[in-house]
Amino acid sequence: MNNLESNNIPALVKSWIGQIVITIQHTVTVERGLWINFCASVFDSNPLYWDDAVARDHTGTVIAPPAMLPGWGSQPEWYPGKQGHSLRPMELHFLLKEAFGLPNGIVTSVELEFHEPVRAGDEVSVEQVLRDVGEPRMTRLGPGRKWTINVIYRRQDKVLLGLQTIEFLAYRRH
Amino acid sequence: MKPNLLIAEKIPELRVLITPKLVIMGAVASRDWQPLHHDHEWSVGEGGLPGIILNNYTQMGWIIRYVTDWSGPQGRVGGLRLTMHSPICPGNELVITGAVDTLEQATTDLNWAILKIELAVGSRIASTAWVKVALPASDNSPSPWHCSASDWHPGFRLNLQMSQGQEDAQ
Questions:
Q1: Is the pLDDT of residue A139 over 90?
Q2: What does R_g of chain B's alpha carbons equal in angstroms?
């Protein structure tokens, strides 16, 4: 853990460290038509995503590409009766950018662990935990900070689908 | 089947010309609506980037596709660590290369192969990835997809040999 006392971290942000700050419940039901678009974007012909007969021997049913796991927890940009903005894919990251006044941010490192595969009909929930916040630093892009967020993905029956660790660099341009 | 792998075995390279369409398709399909993945003017003017950039989930999609093209469908990716050093933009020819870094026996039927993979644009290494993929231990072993949840340990935590690469955005 970093030296929180000398880092000028707002009390609200300090209270988030180690806690589940954002919970997102079912936003979109997983379906093959959506994951086929992702396969097409990377020309992925793995039959586990496309071919019921091949998938039967390995996964029982066709499954979604694992790299899509985080996307199943993103709220739609619009839905009937929507008030205000949607929760963004990494809402906690955006709350931190706002808290520190750092308007720009990039992902520098991401790690995903894949557990039970995601299948059509699944509903994915997300928990975002702030793991740590780095010291202020001068980056090539401008003054900024790094922080790390852990994300837990579960199915509607609480089965673990995956774990994610993301390191962000947020900055204000020179 | 890949039961007789050797450390340092290379995976055939994959080349792809990144276009605006591929960047935007990947971002939209992964449900990532951030403007740096679809709005060139925003990326340059507000983001200070060379253009729209390939998002991390699409990079992961390319990497997993690269691995499973090599392993076949029985290859079950358990973990992926991606470090992005510099952006991948339209007009870049992306060259993906990789090799077996480490082999570990997980159960009598399942081996882990740890792969080191690089995403290069010309001489620039844009991203480095480590992939932990489960493979059958022998020709007679069941598919790793049949591994029980109690025997499935896909994280990198115990792999102390793996380095993280350096980011040059600092």
A1: no
A2: 17
Q: How far is CA A112 from CA A95, A153, B21, B55, B140, in A?
A: 22, 10, 26, 15, 29
Q: What sign does the dihedral B27-B43-B84-A172 (CA atoms) show?
A: negative
- Residue whose token pair is 């998938």: A55
CA–CA dist A153, A115 (Å, integer): 10
Residues B112-126: pLDDT tens digits?
A: 999 999 999 999 999
ipTM of the complex: 0.89
Say if the Cβ atoms of B30 and A38 lie within 8 Å.
Answer: yes
Q: Is B17 exposed, middle or buried (0-12, 13-18, 19+ CB in 10 A)?
A: exposed
Of B31, B77, B168, the CB nearest to A66: B77
Say which CATH topology domain A4-30+69-171 has: Thiol Ester Dehydrase; Chain A (3.10.129)
CATH classification for the domain delimited by B10-19+55-151, as one of 3.90.1210.10, 3.10.129.10, 3.40.50.2300, 3.40.50.10540: 3.10.129.10
Contacting residues of A for B77, CB less than 8 Å apart = 66, 114
Burial of A20-31, coded b for 16+ CB within 10 Å and e otherwise, reads ebbebeebbebe
